[in-house]
Design goal:
heterotetramer; A: 334 residues; alpha/beta; Glutaconate Coenzyme A-transferase; 13 helices; B: alpha/beta; two-stranded antiparallel ribbon
């Protein structure tokens, strides 16, 4: 096949050059030192207006809510987002009017829960610049970066309008002559990932589906972990095969128990579906939604106040029973 | 004949296509219900995968998200998105199910937008998610959808996920893996496949209560017809019972 | 940079075409059925003369000794090997004159233990056709196959004689114009991997450094696991994040306790350095070595007899104490 | 001045180059001893990695293999070969140490073969292993080696691992990562670096007991010389004590 090779027409929001990325990584600390911080400090010092960000987990599963809220509270502007099955995380950031560019795989929807009216309005208004991708494409763009490359050859998105509005390029395989998509490496400026356990150095463990978080942690220039609980470095060293993210990827560590609320945290607590429904309902009317955001995010000092506002530990107990399929009725249901 | 609604019909018919020992990547909703029904009827060994990383869970209930804890409840593996997608790309995944707002005669699907200006769409949908990837990389893509002539369109406003593209050999020439593509489109009215040569959509079987005319009238492009058009075998009692009692007892899906 | 792109001059022993690989994988069973077998049966039915094989572990660490020996006993011929830090495994296969082609990263040496005289003689005689690679190159060639691709772009081997005697090609990055090596995907015909635990379906766990075994299991057309011990499928399902190799990669499962002997098995037993020294000494004289092979491999019926010949469980106890740094002297050493 | 052999000298000098908080990939033998010595003297936070996957172990003794259990004993991570190599390729690894049978004036190293027929070498060595990868991808490559004019050759029979290739900018032009390359060559006689422009090997410091003439006479190509040649600071008492008592008490390496 010696055909004309195509190029996606939309904007590439990040620099895929691996030597530029290496120049940054060369300066990144590899010290085994304490990285304990808090959300206010992290968002103030580690994230600039205009930065490109990636969010761990999967929309409303294992998400770093404390960081997402703090980005809104601090009114960060003109951020770009890797919209890799972005659901509740996208909702929060669009609610705060924080983003103006997005690499889209999946946005404005909340899977089986329906669509976000506010996010949809924002996207349809043209206020957010979109480049189209897919879930695998964003995964592989992060993997290319995690591997220190500038692109990854793949066999998806070819032939579609998705390709046309992406920033990918077609290439020919030097061995078979077959056509591949070349997906540009994605090196985010900043990533926030919620994990089950980590030590003060940032050696972290994650349980359940890991989505793309291992590659996200490696590909990103600055990384903050929020964690359900801190563990000792001794514990990390007892099972070195369980380390999901190593310390050198991590710049800050924050202990945030129940930190994925209102999202699901595998083996810990289920998502608060009633709350998410309430949020979706509030979004229907812009005035209502403003009040809702004021109360939930701008009006709360931090994640602890926010959690308390929404039922605190008692609520978490219920969600925990739901997650573990434990019947907590007195005497059982039957 | 048992009484059933069109969602029940589509799920029961779709489930029959999933043979024992096959692999399938599903999303939430009807596709997941379909895979669960197949597992509980003729395919106990069907391996169900979710794109966030869950593999072969013992599903305690219908997931809300393809990444929630149910998708890896007592699973064989709780892996990652690249792991699942690479397994598809390597040719180890047989089936997937997609949805969409528009589909054309070559099985190309739109789940991105309506309108002609990408930067200011008339209506914006979520976008591909994993749909393009699964449509590109799994062996056989299926769709369950109510049929009308707006959805079955002569031209998608946006091709999110590839069917046979412009038909003929164009899918493989675009670089997509050899031998992959749309397999069955299951609507309330009929079951469609695709012509071997032209890759155009072809009616194989008509569902109870519908006519040839209904099927063509509710389609925005000209359908091909198999030499012998079957009458769709309607849902069996045991399929409906298992679907209603075990798969979706709260009627989240079949109550829609 | 618009310079002439180079191609390695040596032979590519395997087909990198992903559609040919997919056509095979389409036919590979995905059934959750028992795959219990034995070494004699596996080598007789799953491996043909001329096949390209990959061996799990790292030379003398976590190696599938029972399969390696059985390949020698059944006098398999003209095999090709992925020589990815091949040490004791290479020694065994060359001792049995089983291989005539090798993708080389590291051969004939045994790391800190010195060089294998017999393997060196065989290689220097020109009897084994060599194509040059590196450890990362073979890892990435397997990863390209595991991902279902025909090549992986990388930044190693460029500019060297290693590249010149490889079968790699130079390509230009479509985004940066930079030169990369394109490494052809490696889809072996057969792989044998020793694991710590697996169920009868082939869902397996590995502890300690995993080398390239996850990609090897995915990339290979036929895969046999030998395992220290069988576990139940229930146990697999209790920690789904610990599954290292999923069942659909695996064609046969053999329980072989102490199956990495004389190699090291992480957390189980250390390598038998005295035995490896004896082997190296025997190799110095071809006549001596023939006798040694007769006694150790041709003269033993299976791995159990071989292990018994070399000290059996008592020997393993010693190696286990060494591995776990346990002082087993009566009353302790001091 | 303390008494020491040349292996002890080379290890002590090399260890001084590994600053606290750096990352280094090492093999078995002298490189591992060097990293351990650095850790036990001025760089407690040196992160030692092994190419089979071990990261930051608490090494109970010298490994026999870069994949044996010692390399991930109480480690931070027991990962994989691609994991380590990709960390190097991403620019997160500062140092590595290589060995070889030949080295030329640009720091190119041969560990593959002697002779001119690849298919029938006069002498075959193990080959690259991970050496080419580490030399290509880590920021700074070092070598410890006894010096003689056969080993320090005007032309390697085979370039297994890249130094500065043909000098000047040729390394980057070949596609290798910007800013990487050989950093220090530490021999029994001297310490060499590389000229900024020409990338030719340049003597920086001469070891106790050797002269300029010794250094040049035992080198098969013309060496460059720094403007000011230092006298190598010989091993200190505490370096030797720790090396002998804690790092290599059985003299596996330093007894060679």
């Amino acid at each position: 096949m010696s055909v004309q090779l195509k190029t996606g027409r939309n904007e590439l929001f990040t620099d895929p050059d691996p030597d530029n990325a290496r120049a940054f990584f060369r300066t990144k600390s590899r010290e085994l030192k304490s990285k304990i911080s808090n959300a206010e400090e992290v968002v103030r010092t580690m994230l600039k207006d205009g930065d490109y960000i990636g969010i761990g987990g999967f929309g409303a599963n294992r998400i770093p809510t404390a960081i997402l809220h703090e980005i809104v509270r601090q009114k960060k502007k003109n951020l770009a987002l890797a919209g890799h099955t972005a659901t509740h995380d996208f909702q929060i950031l669009v609610g705060g009017e924080c983003i103006d560019r997005c690499d889209v795989a999946y946005i404005i929807g909340l899977e089986a829960r329906g669509l976000s009216p506010n996010a949809r309005r924002a996207v349809q208004s043209g206020k957010i610049k979109l480049t189209e991708w897919t879930n695998a494409s964003l995964s592989w763009r992060l993997k290319a970066a995690a591997m220190g490359l500038s692109f990854m050859p793949t066999r998806n998105i070819l032939g579609t309008t998705t390709f046309e509005y992406s920033a990918a390029k077609e290439i020919e395989c030097p061995f078979t002559g077959k056509k591949f998509a070349a997906l540009p490496a994605l090196y985010p400026d900043f990533a926030a990932i919620h994990v089950h356990e980590c030590d003060i150095f940032g050696n972290a463990r994650v349980y359940g589906a890991s989505v793309s978080d291992q590659d996200l942690a490696k590909a990103s220039k600055r990384v903050v972990l929020t964690t359900e609980r801190l563990i000792t470095n001794d514990e990390i060293r007892q099972n070195p095969e369980s380390t999901f993210i190593p310390f050198w990827c991590v710049d800050a560590v924050i202990e945030v128990p129940y930190g994925s609320y209102p999202g699901n945290m595998p083996y810990e607590y289920f998502s608060d579906e009633a709350y998410i429904k309430e949020w979706l309902a509030a979004e229907k009317d812009p005035e209502e939604f403003k009040k809702f955001m004021d109360k939930q995010i701008y009006g709360t000092k931090d994640f602890y106040e926010y959690l308390e506002l929404n039922g605190g530990i008692k609520k978490i107990q219920k969600l925990r029973a739901q997650e573990l399929l434990i019947d907590t009725e007195i005497g059982g249901k039957k | 004949m048992a009484d059933f609604n069109s969602m029940e019909l589509m799920i029961c018919i779709a489930a029959r296509n999933l043979e024992d020992g096959a692999t399938v990547v599903v999303g939430t909703g009807a596709p997941c219900a379909t895979a669960m029904l197949a597992q509980k009827t003729h395919s106990p060994n069907l391996c169900i995968m979710f794109e966030a990383g869950g593999v072969a869970p013992l599903l305690p209930s219908m997931p809300i998200s393809v990444g929630d804890s149910r998708t890896f409840h007592k699973a064989i593996m709780a892996s990652s998105m690249p792991e699942i997608m690479e397994t598809c790309q390597r040719g180890m995944v047989d089936y997937t199910f997609l949805g969409g707002a528009q589909i054309d005669m070559y099985g190309n699907i739109n789940s991105t937008m309506i309108g002609d200006d990408h930067s200011k769409p008339k209506v914006r949908f979520p976008g591909s998610g994993g749909a393009n990837d699964l449509a590109s990389l799994c062996w056989r893509t299926m769709m369950m959808t109510p049929q009308d002539s707006k959805r079955f369109t002569s031209k998608c406003d946006f091709i999110t996920s590839p069917g046979y593209l412009q038909g003929g050999n164009s899918r493989y020439e675009a670089g997509l893996p050899l031998g992959t593509g749309p397999y069955r489109i299951i609507t309330n009215m009929a079951i469609m496949g695709f012509d071997e040569e032209s890759k155009r959509m072809k009616v194989l079987s008509i569902n109870p209560g519908y006519s040839r005319k209904d099927v063509q009238d509710n389609c925005g492009f000209e359908l091909l017809w198999a030499d012998k058009i079957e009458n769709t075998d309607p849902p069996h009692e045991n399929e409906l019972r298992i679907l209603r009692e075990e798969v979706d007892p709260f009627r989240y899906i079949i109550g829609r």
